[in-house]
Amino acid sequence: MSKDIKHFLDLDQLTLTTLRSILACATSVKKNGVGTPLPLIGKTLAMLFEKPSTRTRVSFQVGMQQLGGSVVTLSPQDTQIGRGESIADTARALSRYVDAIMIRTSSPEKLRDLVQFATVPVINGLTDESHPCQIMADIMTFEECKGPIEGSIIAWSGDGNNVATSWVHAAAHFGFELRIACPKNLQPRANIIAWARSKGAKISIGIDPHAAVKDADCIVTDTWVSMGDEAADKHKELAPYQVNEALMVEAKSDAIFMHCLPAHRGEEVTEAVIDGPRSVVWNEAENRLHVQKGVLLWCLE
Ligand code: CP
Ligand code: NVA
Q: Which CATH superfamily, name and number, covers 134-284?
């Protein structure tokens, strides 16, 4: 893997300066547009989806188009990957055609293989372990609504999944307090929490959602059943972690609600909360578009 290639893989592997510069770029393109001449004319992004996606797919495609570039969307069944061609060989071939590769895959190992063998930037569009682009959009959304995230309290109530893990990575950089409430067996991995704490992150982890949300500026949750998790029946143990109006009133009176989507009303969040006045989920979804542009420009310019 060349050190000169700017991969966007996980928030723990990037510096705060880089992450802040991507967010500043996202904010600028949201406010002022992308400028002329379009910055990515002639550039192509390959998007490899081994799992479904609405927001990530459309925001990368539209973002790339608005920057002047184009995309090629691939899935295992319509490429030779479906017939057993390795990610390594796919990476080597794709690198001869395109300028960057975005991948959504179950397997962090496949992401690592792609990075090892690609000679163009690779962007992590979600694995079973993390979802960094999402948390960049979430931080942008938080700061638009509430000002600097540094010193704020973010409470996570629900499954300690890939999205929660990227929040842990972010806590090591952005100076907010992260309080995670989830059942013991569904917590983010201990080594990730330990890494974040070693970098100065203020993280508490426990099983009580009420303790986590007390005085929080933002409550975040995500689906109880992630893609690839379909066989798991976690509903019963996650039921106490539902974000409902009773839980929201235990946070600060002006606390916001965030969810990466897709949501399951009546499970991890009630309709009254996600469709209520404190929910900023559509701003989050929109900011995926602006953040993708920030990521693409950082990788490709
Ligand atoms: N939040 C998110 O990544 O949505 P999609 O699965 O629709 O891409
Ligand atoms: N945790 C969810 C996020 C979807 C964007 C999943 O992996 O399915």
A: Aspartate/ornithine carbamoyltransferase (3.40.50.1370)
Ligand 2 surroundings by CB, under 6 angstroms: 126, 131, 161-163, 222-223, 226-227, 260
Please tell me the pTM assigned to this model.
Answer: 0.97
Q: Which of 79, 82, 84 is nearest to 101 (CA)?
A: 79
Atom 6 of ligand 1, nearest CA residue: 53
Q: From 53, 221, 260, 267, give the residue whose CB has the most ligand 2 atoms within 8 Å, as the site to mutate.
A: 260
The whole-number pLDDT of residue 209 equals 98
Which helix (H) or strand (E) segment is 285 a member of? helix 281-300
Q: Is the CB of 287 under 6 A from ligand 1?
A: no
Those residues of the chain that have pLDDT short of 70 are 1-3
Counting from 1 in the atom list of ligand 2, the atom nearest the Cα of 162 is 1
Rounded to whole angstroms, the Cα distance separating 286 from 190 reads 32
Residues 6+ away with beta carbon under 8 Å from 112: none
pLDDT of residue 2: 66
CATH 3.30.2060.10, applies to 11-131+285-300: no
* DSSP code at position 99: S
Locate the ligand 2 atom nearest the alpha carbon of residue 55 and give its number. 5
In terms of C-beta density within 10 A (0-12 exposed, 13-18 middle, 19 or more buried), how is residue 105 classed? Answer: buried
In the chain, residues under CATH classification 3.40.50.1370 are 11-131+285-300, 134-284
Give the model's pLDDT for residue 231.
74
- Contact in structure between 141 and 287 (CB atoms under 8 Å): yes
Q: Which amino acid, 267? A: E
CA distance 43 to 300: 8
Q: For residue 185, give the 3-state DSSP assignment.
A: helix
Residue 1, pLDDT score: 59
Q: Give the residue ranges of DSSP H helices in 67-204.
A: 87-94, 108-117, 132-146, 162-174, 190-198
